[in-house]
Write a structure and sequence with these properties.
The chain has 377 residues and is an alpha+beta fold. The chain has 2 domains: 118 residues, Orthogonal Bundle (Cytochrome Bc1 Complex, Chain D, domain 2), CATH 1.10.760; 241 residues, Porin (Beta Barrel), CATH 2.40.160. The chain contains 7 helices and 14 strands. It binds heme C (HEC).
Length: 377
Amino acid sequence: MRNILLGGSVILAALTLALGSRAETEGAQRPLDTPLAVYSAACSSCHGDDGRGRSRERVGFDVGLPDFTDCTFATREPDGDWFAVTHQGGPIRGFDHRMPAFGEALSEDQMRLAIEHVRTFCGDDAWPSGNLNQARPMFTEKAFVEDEFVFTFGAAVQEPYAVDAELLLETRIGARSQLELIVPFAGVDLEPVEGDPGSGGWTGGIGDIAVGVKHVLLAAESTGSILSAIAEIITPTGDADRDLGKGVFVFEPTLTFGQLLGPAGFLHLQLGMEVPAENDPGTEALWRLAYGYTFTQGMFGRAWSPMIEVLGNIDIEEGATPHWDLAPQIQITLSARQHIALALATRIPLEPGHDRTIGVWAYFLWEWFDGGLAEGW
Ligand code: HEC
């Protein structure tokens, strides 16, 4: 252990010396003002000239070094997290302390240059940048592709009382695609049917299981925009007689768009249709808009993302009127690595004369690619 620590401090001391002497002998050596120059001076002793990480023998410790040429890992990390790790050292995002803090040794611009060089190791533009990935709203689907597990729970706080839960598993395929599996559970407090004393009361069970595929159609880091198409098939696994499912296969194609607004604001927009395989229930159009802003606690701490969603849908038939809901909410990251988050929302029906109820919702989110549930705290 002592050897490992020593190894780290020797490298740091050497680096400080190198940087110091560079500053003193101004002009005599190449100044640290290009991505490659900063990276070579400060990072390549561990991460290697090729970004794959030097061997254990070379670095003198056996914590695995990341492979920055691996696009699936390297592209999903937003600059903000890499900047935090470079500035404060590994532990700020739940990584090992052998990733040193450069906050004192390098200027903020130099750290940004080093990260810019790290970004060049995955030379494949097909992978959407993690900078386009924003906080997940409760109801609107994001355009970014994820390896994620989300458990959602909702409850109606007015009569008729009902509870909803949903397990969502998302897994990325290649640069731009994602598969998803949604397993819902519902409990409803049914109204008794007149003349049937045994009817009514709580009933519950599994709902309509859905599978889907998402594909990123466009990802433009320069404008902060990402557009994806999602195709979902909802299967009639829920008991329609007990209001737990629709009773028919439903096809749900949607388009979803994400847009950064300034340094910390963002918007998600989803438009789509629910097309049942049979005529009853009818086809529905849906639209969901989420606007949010991410505040960081301190410079590198927990992320708080308040959001507001406007949700609408309408049956495609003559004389139909749209349903509108408003859903104010907040998402909070829990782990230092930011891969575990919690969100709380309320969903309020808006149009007059509706028979829908106010609901409270919560989700627990785990980006499992970034670490186990117990890792990264
Ligand atoms: C003393 C060796 C060492 C030096 C020098 C070093 N790193 Fe690291 N770095 C590590 C180790 C070890 C890890 C892996 C930590 C872990 O996985 O727990 C790491 C991880 C990282 C990560 C986290 C990747 C992720 O998983 O999200 C980033 C980003 C990073 N380093 C950037 C840099 C930059 C930029 C520099 C130069 C300014 C640099 N490192 C210099 C050892 C080093």
